[in-house]
Fold each of these.
Amino acid sequence: MAAAGALAVKTLEFEGKQKGWFWFRKWDLEDMSSICWFTGIHVLAACAPFVFDRGAIRLCVGFALLSAFGMTLGYHRLLCHRSFKIPKWLEYFFVYCGAHAFQGMRAVVIHHFAALASYVSHKWGERPWNTSDTSTNKWWVAVLTLGEGWHNNHHAFPRSARHGLE
Ligand SMILES: [Zn+2]
Ligand SMILES: [Zn+2]
């Protein structure tokens, strides 16, 4: 998940675009699409209390968990880093779960946990490995993000299938 952010930064550097915060950037179609998408899902999330339903909450948590496993296990560790090998049908299953991460209410949950991992894990926490970046480990972020919070470990050993190396 964090790797996607790092890749985006590298891509922007490669394209030579000058990207700054809100007022300090030239808005292009991609920026406008992103702001419409993220504003849209947050407006829909704000409507959630008006249609509260316990069953829907349980379903959301279950699907969010399944999709989060698909993201971290399928997309990140398996496809991005090729950290381990599993049968092809299981590979398809995890990637299929991950592909649903941006659907319904779970999109909001997964987006915020992914953002949490990317942000906190480059700001606060322990650095058992002296990597050339600002990556850190934070146990409670790791709990919330199915292990992605062991981010310093991941930067030190990107291809390792184990999150908590220490
Ligand atoms: Zn990182
Ligand atoms: Zn990674």
Amino acid sequence: MRHLPIVIAAVLASALPALAQTPASKPTAKPTVAPNSAIAPILAPGRTLLSTKEVMRHIVNPAAETFWAHSGVVDDEKGANDRTPTDEANWKLSMDSAAQLVEAGNLLQMEGRARDPNGPWMKYALQLTNAGVRGMAAALAKDHDKTFDAGSAMYDSCYACHGKYIVRPKDSLYRHDIDKDLEAAGKTPK
Ligand code: HEC
């Protein structure tokens, strides 16, 4: 069992009481970045506290899962289930999770975390940011199709980066849907 580094535990402890008192915020705010704005990749200096794996596990994956759970149509026992939000509370979840992915793309471009600062890593990180920006715009517009498209764009960034950078031992028990799709396409990195 790994423990959180002390510094993070301290930050969390000081932030939690404040979080508990925060009143529910307004559901939507206009994103500061417009979709399709030409953002250049940047190797950002700074201090990384979490590993890439932790950023994936605790920030990128939960945010993406939340966004996906509020988009698209899935077949379940009751038939086609359209998960696109129909109320403010759920649109807020889409907006929040998309915003988290926008900045997560930046976290992946930080010195010490960017695995391959001169390679496609930066492009894929930016792809995640741009998909998040599209997600925010879709949530702001409360638009069904744009939400679905943003979710696909998010998925494409995971798929592209994992296909290039994650080498899994053959006997790995860990399987994400992304891995299964990569495997089916014969694109697992060697
Ligand atoms: C710029 C590259 C990049 C992008 C974009 C990216 N990932 Fe990752 N991801 C990685 C790398 C590298 C690892 C392996 C980290 C390690 O094991 O050290 C990883 C690992 C993971 C893991 C496994 C974490 C664990 O506990 O072992 C999950 C889950 C994950 N990513 C989900 C996602 C999802 C979902 C997306 C898209 C919304 C995404 N990733 C986008 C590079 C990326």
